[in-house]
Specification:
It is built from three helices and seven strands; from the N terminus they run H-E-E-E-E-H-E-E-E-H. The chain is α+β, with helices and mostly antiparallel strands and about 140 residues long. It has one domain: 2-Layer Sandwich (Mago nashi protein), CATH 3.30.1560.10. Strands 1, 2, 3, 4, 5, 6 and 7 form a seven-stranded antiparallel beta sheet that branches.
Length: about 140
Protein backbone atom coordinates (compact mmCIF):
# COMPACT_ATOMS: atom_id res chain seq x y z
CA UNK A 1 0.00 0.00 0.00
CA UNK A 2 2.83 2.41 0.82
CA UNK A 3 4.44 1.68 -2.55
CA UNK A 4 1.20 2.35 -4.40
CA UNK A 5 0.81 5.69 -2.60
CA UNK A 6 4.40 6.61 -3.44
CA UNK A 7 3.96 5.76 -7.11
CA UNK A 8 0.69 7.70 -7.36
CA UNK A 9 2.28 10.68 -5.62
CA UNK A 10 5.16 10.72 -8.09
CA UNK A 11 2.78 10.53 -11.04
CA UNK A 12 0.72 13.48 -9.77
CA UNK A 13 3.79 15.56 -8.97
CA UNK A 14 5.25 14.86 -12.40
CA UNK A 15 1.98 15.79 -14.12
CA UNK A 16 1.64 19.02 -12.19
CA UNK A 17 5.19 20.01 -13.09
CA UNK A 18 4.63 19.49 -16.80
CA UNK A 19 1.35 21.39 -16.72
CA UNK A 20 2.97 24.39 -15.06
CA UNK A 21 5.80 24.65 -17.58
CA UNK A 22 6.36 28.17 -18.72
CA UNK A 23 7.49 29.29 -22.13
CA UNK A 24 11.05 30.36 -21.36
CA UNK A 25 11.41 31.85 -24.83
CA UNK A 26 8.78 34.45 -23.83
CA UNK A 27 10.69 35.75 -20.78
CA UNK A 28 12.84 38.86 -20.79
CA UNK A 29 14.48 40.34 -17.71
CA UNK A 30 15.70 43.93 -17.67
CA UNK A 31 17.69 45.71 -14.97
CA UNK A 32 18.54 49.39 -15.28
CA UNK A 33 20.54 51.77 -13.13
CA UNK A 34 20.93 55.48 -13.66
CA UNK A 35 22.20 58.65 -12.08
CA UNK A 36 22.78 62.08 -13.53
CA UNK A 37 26.06 60.95 -15.06
CA UNK A 38 25.84 57.18 -15.38
CA UNK A 39 23.58 54.61 -17.00
CA UNK A 40 23.53 50.83 -17.31
CA UNK A 41 20.89 48.59 -18.85
CA UNK A 42 21.02 44.81 -18.79
CA UNK A 43 18.53 42.80 -20.84
CA UNK A 44 18.60 39.01 -20.62
CA UNK A 45 16.54 36.44 -22.45
CA UNK A 46 17.10 32.78 -23.19
CA UNK A 47 19.36 33.50 -26.15
CA UNK A 48 21.28 36.67 -25.36
CA UNK A 49 22.58 39.10 -22.79
CA UNK A 50 22.58 42.73 -23.88
CA UNK A 51 24.44 45.39 -21.91
CA UNK A 52 24.50 49.14 -22.44
CA UNK A 53 26.93 51.06 -20.23
CA UNK A 54 26.28 54.66 -21.35
CA UNK A 55 23.37 56.67 -22.70
CA UNK A 56 23.26 56.47 -26.48
CA UNK A 57 25.76 53.62 -26.65
CA UNK A 58 25.12 50.58 -28.82
CA UNK A 59 24.37 47.43 -26.81
CA UNK A 60 27.09 44.84 -26.27
CA UNK A 61 25.30 41.57 -27.10
CA UNK A 62 26.60 38.18 -25.99
CA UNK A 63 25.12 34.69 -26.02
CA UNK A 64 23.40 33.63 -22.82
CA UNK A 65 24.78 30.26 -21.83
CA UNK A 66 22.37 27.47 -21.00
CA UNK A 67 23.93 27.17 -17.54
CA UNK A 68 23.45 30.87 -16.78
CA UNK A 69 19.88 30.83 -18.11
CA UNK A 70 18.96 27.75 -16.07
CA UNK A 71 20.37 29.33 -12.91
CA UNK A 72 18.48 32.54 -13.64
CA UNK A 73 15.23 30.58 -14.13
CA UNK A 74 15.84 28.68 -10.89
CA UNK A 75 16.24 32.00 -9.07
CA UNK A 76 13.23 33.52 -10.84
CA UNK A 77 11.01 30.68 -9.58
CA UNK A 78 11.58 31.95 -6.03
CA UNK A 79 10.13 35.37 -6.91
CA UNK A 80 6.44 36.28 -6.77
CA UNK A 81 6.55 38.07 -10.12
CA UNK A 82 3.00 39.42 -9.92
CA UNK A 83 3.90 41.20 -6.67
CA UNK A 84 7.00 42.95 -8.03
CA UNK A 85 5.18 46.28 -8.64
CA UNK A 86 4.16 46.35 -4.96
CA UNK A 87 7.62 45.87 -3.44
CA UNK A 88 8.93 48.72 -1.34
CA UNK A 89 12.55 49.82 -1.47
CA UNK A 90 14.44 49.20 1.79
CA UNK A 91 16.40 52.49 1.54
CA UNK A 92 16.13 55.91 -0.08
CA UNK A 93 19.70 56.93 -0.90
CA UNK A 94 18.70 57.48 -4.53
CA UNK A 95 16.70 60.54 -3.44
CA UNK A 96 19.87 62.52 -2.71
CA UNK A 97 22.33 60.99 -5.19
CA UNK A 98 23.60 58.54 -2.57
CA UNK A 99 22.91 55.61 -4.90
CA UNK A 100 21.96 55.02 -8.50
CA UNK A 101 18.25 54.59 -9.22
CA UNK A 102 17.53 50.98 -10.14
CA UNK A 103 14.54 49.19 -11.65
CA UNK A 104 13.76 45.58 -12.47
CA UNK A 105 11.36 44.70 -15.26
CA UNK A 106 10.19 41.20 -16.18
CA UNK A 107 8.25 40.67 -19.38
CA UNK A 108 6.41 37.41 -19.97
CA UNK A 109 4.20 36.87 -23.03
CA UNK A 110 3.85 40.62 -23.47
CA UNK A 111 2.82 41.26 -19.85
CA UNK A 112 5.20 43.56 -17.98
CA UNK A 113 5.93 43.37 -14.25
CA UNK A 114 8.02 46.37 -13.21
CA UNK A 115 9.37 47.25 -9.80
CA UNK A 116 9.20 50.63 -8.21
CA UNK A 117 12.58 52.35 -8.18
CA UNK A 118 15.08 51.30 -5.54
CA UNK A 119 18.73 51.92 -4.67
CA UNK A 120 21.22 50.07 -6.83
CA UNK A 121 23.01 47.69 -4.48
CA UNK A 122 20.03 47.48 -2.12
CA UNK A 123 16.99 45.98 -3.87
CA UNK A 124 13.92 44.76 -2.00
CA UNK A 125 14.79 41.45 -0.35
CA UNK A 126 12.23 39.55 -2.45
CA UNK A 127 14.21 40.26 -5.63
CA UNK A 128 17.76 40.52 -4.24
CA UNK A 129 18.85 37.06 -5.42
CA UNK A 130 17.45 37.67 -8.90
CA UNK A 131 19.20 41.03 -9.27
CA UNK A 132 22.48 39.54 -8.02
CA UNK A 133 22.17 36.67 -10.50
CA UNK A 134 21.60 39.09 -13.39
CA UNK A 135 24.61 41.19 -12.39
CA UNK A 136 26.71 38.05 -11.97
CA UNK A 137 25.87 36.87 -15.49
CA UNK A 138 26.95 40.19 -17.02
CA UNK A 139 30.23 40.19 -15.09
CA UNK A 140 31.02 36.68 -16.36
CA UNK A 141 30.67 37.66 -20.00
CA UNK A 142 32.35 41.08 -19.92
Amino acid sequence: MKHLFLILSLVFVDNSCTQSKINQDAITLEYTTQTRGAYKCIVINKKKVSTVNKYGEKPDIKTCSETDWNQLMKTLKTVDVKNIPNLKAPSEDRFFDGAAIANLKITYNGKVYESQSFDHGNPPKQITALVKEMLSITKKIE
